[in-house]
Amino acid sequence: MAHGTNALPIGRQRGAPANPSGARRTRGVRPLAAVAAAFTLAQLLLVVPGAAADLGPGFGLGLGWDETVYVSQVSAQAPPAFFSAPRARGVTLLVAPVASWSTSTTLLRAYLALLSGLGLYLALRVWRGLFPTRVLALAGALFATLWVTLFYGPAAMPNQWVGLGALACAGCLLRARADHRDRAALWGVAAGAALMAWMRPTDAAWIAPPLLVLALAGRHLRVAAVLAGGLATGVAQWVIEAYTSHGGPLRRLAEGSRIQGGLGWNLAVDDQMRGLIGRALCRPCTGPLPNPVITAWWVLLPLLAALGLAVAVRAGRTAPTLLLLVCATTAAVPYLFLIGYAAPRFLQPVYALLAIPVADALFHLVTRPDGRWRPAAAILTALLLTGHLAVQYVVLDRLVDRTAADRLDWTRTAADLHRLGVRPPCLLTGTEAIPVAFYAGCSSAATSGNNANATEADILGAVRRVPTAALSPPGGPPPHYARAWTRHPAAGLDLHLAPRPDGGGPG
Hints:
Mean pLDDT: 90
Shape: globular
Oligomer: single chain
Number of strands: 5
Radius of gyration: 26 Å
């Protein structure tokens, strides 16, 4: 070889990249980055605007009931709403970087859409080397195109983050077991466990045992300690709050069980199927099951997951697939068999964990053992997936329109309250008082029910200090202490205004 300035090292061709392994790593993550970017873009286009034809241009999807509770803890828009026993502080921490200084719901949703896209990318990336990149990319696409994933991606809600945390934690745990020097994997175990525990400690308690058993089975005590430490960061906060606000952890668990209708044997499989039509909360969950076209994917999911396990056994990746399936099973148990109502978002961790085995199964169906495509199977699978995507889009579109209209009613009710003189500082009680109070900038109070945080004397005492109103269904009776208050109809609610604090008569 010549020794001039144009000489190249042995084995390197002119024009070849200086770091071939780095180039391969970059190419390997591009499909995952593309899926995550498409997921974020779909949220920004389909969900964040929240525009229905009759709502007017530029109307964004307002915050829902639960979202107002989480966001109000750090927002300047309204005083903190009552934080009931089943809730945890993870969502509030997640939204704090934006909600603590801005009251723009659109900005908050855009921030959460970007964050959820990044979370999906990171959760998939930790599985590289354990599964082919094409399997991971398809898994991300399958999860990201479910209507429940798209709808709750930009939402201030915890369930999707539990799923992403579980997926990342499981992948990092496998990597840490395989290479004890992989410090990044250990940090990933801690971060994924902490994310689950901060978002929903009770969900983490169901998902974590298989992970802990796997770590201890191989005597990987360091990995087990890191996992336990990550969980402890969220659980410790929950326990401290249990002592300060709920009378201790056992009483908090009991109260949470009461609010959720009493935990015990409840076959909620059919309830979850009814929720697939786009019912954000199915309680009580009655009525006929949706059209099989809507529920077909949900019925096929466990069958494809089982096929994914068979594929993994033949491909020599049994342990990763089995771990995903076991964690998905334990995550599903409380929401399919222990709670007497349903919400589609409850199963988001299950869908996130099953996505990889299902994608593995689908590739097995459309390819031969030598890697070549099966044309007929590939075309049929592509048609079925196209139909599946169409169903998901229709359900999402109807849900966004319906939800946006409902939350616009809260906005109009808040405007009516302001017009009638109920402005901050103020107090609302009665039907839908929590979300309407957030929109109006008021405090909320309840003397009974799951959000009871005041007595009748407290509310009557507030009447003498701040503008106060009780809300009731149209034509329905207000709380008995507000029967003499002045009634005003509003958007979907009746407003009962207490006498003004200054003695100037009814509001």
